[in-house]
Design goal:
α1 packs parallel to α2. The protein is 28% helix and 28% strand. The chain is an alpha/beta fold and 238 residues long. The strands form 2 sheets. The chain has a 6-stranded mixed sheet, covered by helices on one side. It has a 6-stranded mixed sheet with strand order 6-7-8-9-10-11, with helices on one face. The chain starts with a strand and ends in a 5-residue tail after the last helix. α4 links the parallel β7 and β8. The longest helix is centred in the N-terminal third of the chain and has 18 residues. The protein has a single domain, classed as 4-Layer Sandwich (Nitrilase/N-carbamoyl-D-aminoacid amidohydrolase), CATH 3.60.110.
């Protein structure tokens, strides 16, 4: 299985974004775990929220079809009873196998004005898909190290983001530190939108980083032995 990060630009045409994401997914191998950047299909689209939420319904059906023998992770704008959520989906074998709503909303980006969140952060936890222990931190949630402790024991942590240009060093430092602290693999998929800093990466438990701002797709083979080696070599109780 390869771990794959997609680093794509966001066009105003939602359909064009979906077509591009699917094109990249089709280049991946069976069993790959593929992470798109935060809201990769629509961006925040505050001026077009209703249309973005409606488009998500169409995108879910398309991505379900593409998830045969692959694991596809992405966040989308979802409307429920007049409230809007930034919802993470994990698709596998034509099923939705996990969802998680963004809990820590970024006030400087007006997220608290437009999005709702759950009453508590219990969703931020390790979940098991097949034989893998996976966890997700959506963008701003990466800054809250209390969640790092909660996610100790995960094999892979997914970090979809729309991280701003002015904080590129923070994104790269935090994602690398997360992999080192939790002795696990991290897939960090950041947007290539003009307002974002790119910096998408795949980081192994040793802190070694695969990163290339010029590419739309990054890939690294997952090896669970790397996790065992690191956790036995430097035993911090994970």
């Amino acid at each position: 299985m390869n771990l794959v990060a997609l680093q794509t630009n966001i066009d105003k045409d939602f359909g064009k974004n979906l077509t591009n994401i699917i094109k990249l997914i089709k280049t991946c191998k069976d069993s790959d775990l593929i992470l798109a950047s935060e809201l990769a299909l629509t961006g925040y689209s505050y001026n077009n929220f209703i249309k973005a939420a409606q488009f998500s319904k169409h995108a879910i059906n398309r991505l379900l079809e593409e998830s045969l023998n692959k694991k596809i992770a992405i966040t989308m704008i979802i409307e429920e009873d007049g409230n809007y959520f930034n919802r993470f989906f994990l698709f596998s074998n034509k099923k939705i196998v996990y969802t998680q709503d963004k809990y820590k909303l970024f006030e400087l980006g007006n997220e608290t004005k437009y999005f709702s969140n759950k009453k508590n952060d219990e969703q931020i936890q390790i979940y098991e898909i097949e034989e893998f222990k996976i966890a997700t931190l959506i963008c701003f949630e990466l800054r809250f190290t209390k969640y790092w402790d909660r996610l100790k024991g995960a094999d892979i942590i997914l970090v979809p983001a729309m991280w701003g240009k002015g904080r590129k060093e923070h994104y790269e430092a935090l994602t690398k530190a997360l992999a080192i602290a939790n002795q696990c693999f991290v897939i960090a998929a950041n947007s290539a939108d003009e307002s974002c800093c790119k910096g998408s990466a795949i980081i192994n438990p040793f802190g070694e980083v695969i990163i290339d701002d010029s590419k739309e797709i990054l890939s690294l083979e997952f090896n669970k032995l790397d996790i065992k080696k690191m956790r036995s070599y430097i035993n911090v109780g994970i």
